[in-house]
Amino acid sequence: MLTENPLDLNQTAYLCGGRRRAALVAVLALCHDRVIGVTGRQVTSRGADGSNQLERDVLSVIPPAGLQLDELLARVAVLPAMSELRASLVERGLISRWIPWLLTSRGRQVRRSLREHATGTFRVAAVGPRAIVAPELRRLFSGRDQATGVRRTAVSPPV
Q1: Between 20 and 30 A from 78 (CA), which of 71, 72, 150, 155?
Q2: What is the pTM of this model?
């Protein structure tokens, strides 16, 4: 469908789940690359640099003492880089220019295809944290409390 110029990981996340999903995927990518560390729900930077502008912006939000994951995701979701992600999807004709959360017909078709066929990290971007393979990371990023298994409301999926 977009074979001539496929969506990158962050665009896929934004298209399929909005700002919160794009924030989650950016943080998860940094976690996988060991650029950030997560102890409990506390996120700390390990001093390395991100591989794209969104990842660098994520790192700039983390103070030296670290930050709770829920707070980090909330801050990342409102970064200017998210507006740039949205603009790139508007330019491709996948999201309405006038209504921020409304996908175009083509956008809905691409999202449906991504949810059905994406693999690996792109699957996480397409369907959310339930696609994370590692159980510890899945619980952490899905917002489930380790002890009770109850979903935390602060990490609820985007509307």
Answers
A1: 150
A2: 0.85
Mean pLDDT of 29-33: 91
For residue 145, what pLDDT band results from cuts at 50, 70 and 90?
A: low
C-alpha 86/C-alpha 156 separation (Å) is: 20
Order of all β-strands in the sheet with 36-39: 36-39, 42-45, 67-68
Helix (H) or strand (E) holding 137, with range, is: helix 135-142
Distance CA 31, CA 122 (A): 15
- The helix, strand and coil proportions of the chain, stated in percent and rounded to the nearest 5, come to 55, 10, 35
Question: Is residue 159 scored above 60 in pLDDT?
Answer: no
What does the DSSP assignment read for 55-94? HHHHHHHS-TT-EEHHHHHHHHHTSHHHHHHHHHHHHTTS
